[in-house]
Amino acid sequence: MSRMRRNWTPEEKAAIVLELLREESTLAEIAKKYDVSQQLISRWKAEFLSNMSAVFDKKNENIEKIQREHEDEKEHLIKKIGELTLDVDWLKKKQVQISQMKKKGR
């Protein structure tokens, strides 16, 4: 019987790797505690160590700035879509009213 593949959030992975880096428990103990293979935890640790300099990288600030700008633009576009939807609905309503007036005038 095969096991379902478990998806770990980045927060969970970080917590497990930090626990390993504290060296309060062995890799085997941590793997057993979280029911994760030792190889997978070792891979997470290697990935963490290779990417930890990114925390202090100024490029991350640029990424966050771009994300904020993207969110602002998204909010603006959602607002604009709402306005245009109201305009279209109003025009459809007026079109129906005008066509009814023309029918009565005949």
Automatic annotation (TrEMBL):
Keywords: Coiled coil, Plasmid. GO terms for molecular function: sequence-specific DNA binding; transposase activity. SUPFAM superfamilies: TrpR-like (SSF48295). The keyword Coiled coil applies. Residues 49-80 form a coiled coil. InterPro entries: Transposase_8 (IPR002514), Trp_repressor/repl_initiator (IPR010921), WH-like_DNA-bd_sf (IPR036388). GO terms for biological process: DNA transposition. This is Transposase IS3/IS911. It comes from Peptoclostridium acidaminophilum DSM 3953.
